[in-house]
Write a structure and sequence with these properties.
Elements: E1 2-3, H1 17-23, E2 29-31, H2 39-45, E3 50-52, H3 60-65, E4 70-75, E5 78-83, H4 92-99, E6 105-108, E7 115-119, E8 122-126, E9 140-147, E10 150-158
Parallel strand pairs: 1-2, 2-3, 5-6, 6-8
Antiparallel strand pairs: 4-5, 7-8, 9-10
Family: Belongs to the metallophosphoesterase superfamily. YfcE family.
Keywords: Metal-binding
Protein name: Phosphoesterase
Length: about 160
Amino acid sequence: MALADTHAPRRWRGCPPAVAAHLRDADLILHAGDVCVPSVLDELAAYAPVRAVRGNNDGTDVAAWGAPEILELELAGLPVGVIHDSGPAKGRLRRMRRRFPEARLVVFGHSHIPLDETGEGLRIFNPGSPTDRRRQPHGTIGLLDIDEGRLLDARIVPVT
């Protein structure tokens, strides 16, 4: 499962029930930054292991929790990159391909705008925000199904 931009405690005052319903089935939770307080990561870790990156609103306490600025990992054999801010929309696929040359999936946040796009031999995925939808019709999370080095499914799911 992927989420980003929870912005606690202003926006996230506890795990919303619709998010918790999906967390119960998660094998791993990726948080693409702007947690704002590390207690959110602790709360998520009660459901499944959490890997997170720092966003522009995250401080040293989130870094101390174990959130680097960028993350490169392998999930069920699939090379994945995670970053908070992927930069402007123009040139994003090419920029993410250069930043994560081995990745086949890059998860990011920052804009609060859900996105699922493929190109440059890469899939980029922004789950949006479950709690701060801004101009979007719904708060959202992302569900990722990965097996044997393949991304079988990536879905953006409304939770508000």
